[in-house]
Specification:
By secondary structure, this protein is an alpha+beta fold. 56% of the residues lie in helices and 7% in strands. α5 packs parallel to α8. It is globular. The model has no long low-confidence stretch (mean pLDDT 95).
């Protein structure tokens, strides 16, 4: 089997990858480099990822960057988490794309990542209280708009755990850290997801023993 190496710890993006690794039960090595330590600018790492971002996956001769792309690659290549019938259907694939786009853009980039930059990292990006408060309000509006689609569901997509559950759970971790209000259906869902053994193990692994303090969201 080809060797697997994950570069990066200490962020929500790296948490996504480590959690899926634990769910898949894969043996892999970790290079514990972090953001804002200068390690992503090391010449050896730049050969792997010239974008100077983490995480990166080295799978034999293949390098995959961007956490979402890494998770999709791993899910396709390692069948520990088999796709159910719905997940393989045209309807299911459309639902996957819709959920993924919604979470990455509306809940993450447009909302919570703005809070991360202008509150938690204001020394770098500048303090912007109005941007923070409006971004939290927008997150609350967006998460409420899909409340009916999560009620009574064990998993977000189909009948089996998927990388979409990883995305949503970590977003809800993050929402809790910034005191965003979420509907009760998401509170119940989040409570179940955060009891998974792979989540707990990955959280400890990803956020433990860091060089720089971070907010483990």
């Amino acid at each position: 089997m080809k060797p697997l190496t994950v570069w990066g710890v200490g962020t929500t993006r790296t948490m996504r990858v480590h959690w899926l690794m634990f769910e898949l039960g894969l043996d892999y090595e970790t290079q514990r480099i972090e953001s804002r330590t200068g390690e992503t600018q090391d010449p050896a790492y730049l050969k792997i990822n010239p974008k100077q971002k983490i995480p990166s996956l080295v799978d034999g001769d293949l390098v995959v960057t961007e956490s979402t792309a890494i998770m999709r690659h791993l899910r396709r290549c390692y069948d520990t988490l088999k796709y159910d019938e719905y997940q393989q259907s045209v309807e299911g694939q459309a639902a996957y794309d819709e959920w993924l786009s919604f979470m990455l853009m509306e809940l993450d980039a447009t909302s919570l990542y703005v809070v991360r930059r202008h509150r938690d990292l204001h020394q770098i990006y500048g303090k912007a209280d109005n941007a923070v408060s409006s971004s939290i309000a927008y997150f609350e509006k967006m998460i409420t708009s899909v409340e009916d689609r999560i009620k009574g569901r064990q998993f977000l997509w189909g009948s089996r755990f998927s990388e979409l559950d990883i995305h949503l759970t970590i977003l809800l971790d993050w929402a809790s850290a910034v005191d965003a209000k979420v509907p009760e259906a998401f509170v119940a869902y989040h409570s179940e997801m955060t009891q998974r053994g792979a989540y707990l193990a990955a959280r400890k692994f990803n956020f433990g023993e860091l060089q720089l303090p971070t907010i483990p969201v």
